[in-house]
Automatic annotation (TrEMBL):
PANTHER family: ACYL TRANSFERASE 4, OS05G0315700 PROTEIN. This is Benzyl alcohol O-benzoyltransferase. Transmembrane segments: none annotated. SUPFAM superfamilies: CoA-dependent acyltransferases.
Length: 290
């Protein structure tokens, strides 16, 4: 019914009224017909997030053979982001967002940690807000779901062999394709194919709720001490959240749920991937068991 931005609109409206306002500063807009399928519906874009994949049993075996699920969170502060940018060709490092850099890093480390076969294709779904991608734009105050999840796809072998920037470009390209026509095509696909689910085997999904403002909601007692998800307790689902670590540094926290053996390998790959002394990052990883 809503996405994170729509949910934050509701929370902020409640907070404003709690502080004495007669009405919210942004009034809600229903208008669900704005995202209805066309007549007749027609799929005009390539939606790789709905492709059928084989070897689902093999994927399930890989997960189950690595032990019980545990949770661990990984922090990306200014040092980590600078380290990732240093892996990009000089002069182009500022072209990529934190989201693109972090997602490409997670993609690489996950494929390594799960020890996937070189010939397998792996997908990274990027949750994209489509509000500003229509012409004319979706009205301010529309609180319905305007999210799509385009897929970046690559073989494991190529992910490991190509430079880091290649994976970052794939993420950027997938995000950039989700303009208005892509969203219209997606609405039509839902009608034509009966609302199929995205393919979850050999796939990961990443979303960003950082900078949405969960921690800035004020019901009259000041800003929240914490705002965001409780944890990444679904395998393959990654969420980028605003976070202040124990040293008072602002950055992005990624809660992650993986089988125990894979988590140990992921933490090592994460440390090895970033060009810096490992000792500087020991305080940045916090582990909790489910």
């Amino acid at each position: 019914m809503v996405d994170a931005i729509g949910f934050m609109q509701l929370m902020n409206a409640m907070a404003e009224i709690s502080r004495g306002s007669d009405q919210p500063s942004i009034l809600p807009v229903w208008r669900r017909e704005l995202l209805s399928a066309r007549n007749p519906p027609q799929i005009t874009c390539n939606h790789r997030e709905f492709e059928q994949v084989e070897d689902i049993k093999e994927w399930e075996t890989i997960i189950s053979s690595n032990g019980d699920m545990i949770q661990q969170s990984f922090f990306f502060g200014s040092t980590e982001i600078a380290s990732l940018r240093s892996l990009i060709q000089l002069g182009e490092e500022e072209e990529y967002t934190r989201f693109e850099l972090i997602t490409a890093c997670l993609w690489y480390c996950l494929a390594k940690a799960l020890q996937l076969s070189p010939e397998k294709q792996v997908r990274m779904y990027c949750m994209v807000n489509g509000r500003g991608r229509f012409n004319p734009p979706i009205p301010v105050g529309y609180y319905g779901n305007v999210i799509s999840s385009p897929a970046a796809v690559i073989t494991v072998k190529k992910l490991f062999e190509e430079p880091f920037e290649y994976a970052v470009k794939l993420i950027k390209k997938a995000k950039g394709e989700t303009m208005g026509e892509y969203m219209r095509s997606l609405a039509d696909l839902m009608v034509i194919k009966g609302r199929p689910l995205t393919t979850r085997a050999w796939s990961f999904l990443v979303s960003k709720v950082s900078r949405i403002g969960f921690r800035n909601v004020d019901f009259g007692w000041g800003n929240a001490l914490y705002g965001g998800l409780i944890g990444g307790d679904e395998f393959g689902e990654l969420t980028l959240m605003d976070y202040e670590n124990a040293n008072g540094e602002e950055g992005v926290l990624v809660p992650l749920s993986l089988p125990a053996n894979a988590m140990e390998r992921f933490a090592k790959e994460f440390d090895d991937f970033l060009p810096k002394p490992k000792s500087t990052y020991k305080y940045r990883v916090a582990k909790t068991k489910t």
